[in-house]
Fold these 4 entries.
Entry 1:
Amino acid sequence: MIPEPSTDDLAVRESVRRFALAELAPRAAEFDESETFVGAHLPRLAETGILGLNLPQAWGGVGISPLGLVGAVEEIAAACPATASMVTAHYLATEVILLAGSDAQKECYLPGAAAGRLLGAFALTEPGAGSNPADMAATASESGGLVHLAGTKHFISNAGAADFIIVFTRSADAGPRTSFDAFVLDKGTPGLRFAKPEPTMGLRGGHIFEIVFDCTIPTNQRLGAVGSGFRTAMRVLDCGRIEVAAMALGICQAAMSATLDWVRNRAVGGQPLAERQGVQWMLADMATEIEGARLLTYRAAALRQADQPFTRAAAMAKLVASETADRVVDRALQLHGGYGYSRRLPLERLARDVRVLRIYEGASEVQRNIIARLILQEAT
């Protein structure tokens, strides 16, 4: 059995739903059309506690469960996927500090992040190391209580607007042994530079950037023990994959809701589309696939909540939910006919927004590799 979200989690979800419908959804098309960063929502996101949903109350957060977090992300993504992208990237950054940071580092960043005073970014991907972070080329060289970081990160959500950035590097001093570390860089660090926002197909209000850094920082900006960075990144990505699955479910929710309204009210040949068997079968397939993706996603969140291993479950949830969302949005657009292809309706935007979910936080092919590796290990 998959445990139900608590009463408090459901109350938070309902509060997020009302906020998202009232304040995010009405501006989603505007941010997409203008390609303006959705950071204008940050003050209100902070007021509602959304920026600290993933953090415990001890560090200024709301303290909802992983199941509750999934529900909240669904509602944000249903209203504005670009805003969900910005928020979940912020969650990744704060999760690293929560997981690997010292108490001093947590005190420095987490309360401000939860209160909306600080926006975070998570910098792992590189031009030559996307789905395989082990190929990263960015380096860290330590000497005399200082660390010199040098490298380039690419496709980093929030980076140009972020107040702090979690950067992963390999050690330049490890010799034949590969060692990775995580560091936190503050906005304005000398030697930290950003390119213009990447012109993207979708999520055009959730900006991504290339980062180039050649800077020297104190060793106390390392997060966790020396050499622990790769393990930290993988643990945080497991959490992030559940959140990507939740984003996919939110987009499914938006597409399905729009489609149900459309087929009830759109008549062809004097008969509402909803009364046609072929349309009903398409709706049935869409609803069934969404429910399957939701069960996988909630199971992964429940395992995380129970402090059980959830790497495989998170990979399955991310794989199935992202690919389901792609199919659901495509069918929804098809059922809208030519109107679905028009930018006057949201289906065209959702079709562009959903596509990246099969790529980031590990492409679908990477999720299949993870799943296969783990099931083969379990079979031995």
Note: Residues 229-265 form the longest helix (37 residues).
Entry 2:
Amino acid sequence: MLLFFPIFAQYYKIKQLKKIIMSKVTVIGAGNVGATCVNVLAQMNLVNEIVLLDIKEGLAEGKALDMMQTAKLCNFSTTITGVTNNYEATADSNIIIVTSGIPRKPGMSREELIGTNAAIVKSVVTNAIEFSPQAFVIILSNPMDTMTYLAIKSSGLPKHRVIGMGGILDSSRFASYLSQQLKVPQANIRSMVIGGHGDTTMIPLIRLATIDGIPVTEKLTSSEAEKVVADTMVGGATLTKLIGTSAWYAPGAGAAVLARAILKDTKEVLPCCVELDGSYGIHDICIGVPSVIGINGVEEVVTIDLNPTEKEAFEKSASAVRNMNEVLKELNLV
């Protein structure tokens, strides 16, 4: 019996290694977000190959080369390849991560990005799935809820294989602001943001946030809690104002975490933008809700028992997202 466990362990190790070797991820868009995503994924040592694609000649190749020259320093074995508009190089990808589009400028709303970014996202998703028809698609391009909806409707992919990353990012920002206010490590905090990925549509669930299992509302005054919620909701705009463009470290890392959950079949509950078909009483839009993420993509939508105030806020958020989606119809993109 004692001999069985080492043999089983070795078999399991080989099986998992084979799974990793067979994994390939494509990241479309070699800007700050895309390059950060590639860098985080590589350092996770999660996949055998990452392809970074961009339309600008030499940009993806240069960033890929630069990152590959950190492989020995950072101890990863993933191969990173950069290509210019060569979708054939992305063939047989397990996951396609879309970061393409123009970033938000100071004072620009995500809604203002629809006209430009919708055409870009539709094109790159169509081109990518031609060579990787079984791939999962992760959307980062803004406005993310609407771009996720567009990717599903224009590609014909089943809804469980197209996921928007936004809720992961917003929840991470929520944890960061709670950590600053409470002066505790972020690892001790459990928090979640649902709703649309926008300054006025996201809903930080302060009532359900905990620190070491204790509700944060027991540790914060009402004004402190309100400040954390407000700071979270304008977290993206705050960074845009400070650095002159959209953030990239946290969004890139968020996409990598989502990819890891799929590839490693972690069954994590992550707040993601997914298409709802009756959950929370919502139909035919993509919006942020907690979801079980695993080898089949979105495996389950987790229903939270929202109080009347939270439910009203969620319904308003869904209405705002639906209104943004109407622009796609006006542009004949869906």
Note: The first strand starts at residue 24 and ends at 28.
Entry 3:
Amino acid sequence: MDTDMDTDCDDAAAFAVLHALADRDEAHILATMVSSSYPWSVPCVSAINRYYGRPDLPIGVVKGPSAPIDRGSRYARQVAEEFPHGFADREAPDAVEVYRQILAEQPDQSVVIVTIGYLTNLSNLIRSGPDRYCPRPGTELVTKKVGHYVCMGSRYPADHDPRVWGNFKPDPPAVVHVAAEWPTPITFTGGGEFANALATGARLSTETPEGSPVRRIYELFFKGTAQNRHSADQIATMVAVRGTGHPWKLTTEGHNHIFPNGTHEWRDVPDDPRHRYISALAPGVDADDVAREIENLMVRPPDAGGNRNN
């Protein structure tokens, strides 16, 4: 999982979903990366991991000349100050180093990466050279170890709004680079009306304890009781764990054309066999049922399944 964990609250909800799926043995979490240079994003991620009983999950953070993406946060500092986390400020290793170490240790084609933030870390990863963990350059390492990449961003079939918001426009060169050079299948998942139709979050204030950092994040974001918010990052997480089949409608023909400013549009030609997107439910699927399933995972008590698979 690669997150910005700064501007929106659905990143935290996606972590709740991921940990719940791991408790159910549907996922094995390898690491949680941070693509934002906001000083409190790393401690906030660590606090969430600790709450769900996985305090030792590796965390890497974006570093280097392409890293200064700091958009502030309504919640990250408060959560880091109120919950135990084990990190001081942005103290964490370079995400590229963590990626390379973990990927080198995994079986071939076994890893799924999901980004619910900026693509800076992945761009840096495929630019990386051989190191002590692996003699392969980044693109070869990814080709060998990653089976699927799920990218939350942006709105489909197009987003031509030049204002800097979302996951693509804060670091457009990284998105252009990853879309063109990432060597494995990429499933882009959309936000906008699609994610709003599956809004979740209001149940956090009534069905999770006050000691939940995810509940706290929603309450800070809304400056009071948790309210429903789009489920963009939760959708990406569900696709990453459970795949691109039911209940999603998958578009496979065409490619995601990224403009230099991070806006984009889906073009039918030429076809890029790596690119596909999900921005709708399959025919006949009830949106309320899908939203309910997502929110059930969000409010699920930590360790309800009795598993710990860091």
Note: The first helix runs from residue 10 to 23.
Entry 4:
Amino acid sequence: MLLVAAPAASAATTIALEGPSSETTFGDTTTLKGMLSADGTALAGHTIELEGRRYPFESEFAPLDHTTSAADGSFSFKRTLDRNWQFRVTDAAAGVTSKRVRAYVFPATTLTFRARSSRVIKLTQRYRVPKGVKLKQPTIFYVGKRGRKTAPRVGSGKLERVRAGRYTSSLIVRLPKAWHGLFRYASCFRYTGGSGMGDPRAGCGSKFHF
């Protein structure tokens, strides 16, 4: 009788990539993390290559950086982004590629207020973006009574270009007398088509939740 051994089942190698854990801002360092494993067991010492493509995502994915998976199978990359990006990672030796992740890059902003009187304030939002980016959408402002967890939308401010890469938007708000000058405020950035900055699907609600 001839006995033939069945081939051993090959381990299923998987590679996963996580996008930024929070909103990515122009000028900040963005961290991308991932894990490499085979049948749930971490794989260490494998070369992981980061690939990406920048807005408007018309080109093919191109190599950006590489690293080695740690003892627990983890790996990470740090990037400074100026537009929205798409990323993926590959382990050529294992022949696996992760699903792509999106990195939405928002303008760097500064929101301030100036009191014009005991009941009138001027809110100002300043934007810093790459010099080639053009923003058009007005800023949405929210003002609520101090201590409350939400603030209603009080209006929008026209966006004005100060110089290349710098924009500002302002709104004058009159506070209710019952607030006794105690308030909290916020703003919402809206995506400008063709800018490649921010989430095109995101909107600004009627209330801001702190």
Note: Confidence is low (pLDDT under 50) at residues 1-10.
